[in-house]
């Protein structure tokens, strides 16, 4: 197809992306503030131009599903949208505005420990930079990366595939955390068997750490007393600090504030050192703001021991 024909279809492509994301013509129409019939017509024109069907049009609540051709087009459109965002930032830089937008996804534990210090440094160097920070578990964060909602992801258990470009990686130790007055609090290291019978605060099953601890306890024959489960590491640490029980976390940045909890390294071979990774979608041009963020992460990882 000639480039002029592609450019003439840009409104249709925009409506296609919205329909694919919302799952219906009506929801997409509400989002772009036009009639559903107009959105449907634009999609039909796009399908005729490309010579393919983009959606499987189900009935009732089944809604719309992308065909294989639709999946391919959505992937390419997402890349184009990302490039346009980068181009806009570069044009702003060219005119001396020096204003950008960092779109970042991060695991919840890092949002309270590692991230505030990084953002403070960025804000000092780039005072006009805007931020969109999405706090997600790793699968949801990767989905946002694919959709182009965020540009950089920072989290655990990033798959080492060609889909993602790993910008920096840090292997982190696993720690038992206890109140300051706990009998193990003054120890530097501890084995899993030493926490048998302890009241234990578990991370939620939706989090990678939950399965890691569950498997390690089984391999080591350790039996703890579950007293609470939460998907918030902020609440988990607060409850440990209050003496409700003990727990485990990966790493110990704690740049935001000093908490009244003790960190004791777990030395058992049953506990693997987990990799913290900073990544983006491979092949996409990085914006100036994301390049600055990844440079800050690389510098931090280079000086940090885990």
TrEMBL record:
Taxonomic lineage: Bacteria, Pseudomonadati, Pseudomonadota, Alphaproteobacteria, Hyphomicrobiales
Protein name per Swiss-Prot or TrEMBL: DNA-binding transcriptional LysR family regulator
Residue intervals of the HTH lysR-type domain: 13-67
Keywords on record: DNA-binding, Transcription, Transcription regulation
Keyword Cell membrane: no
Family, per entry: Belongs to the LysR transcriptional regulatory family.
GO MF term (any one): DNA binding
A Pfam cross-reference name: HTH_1
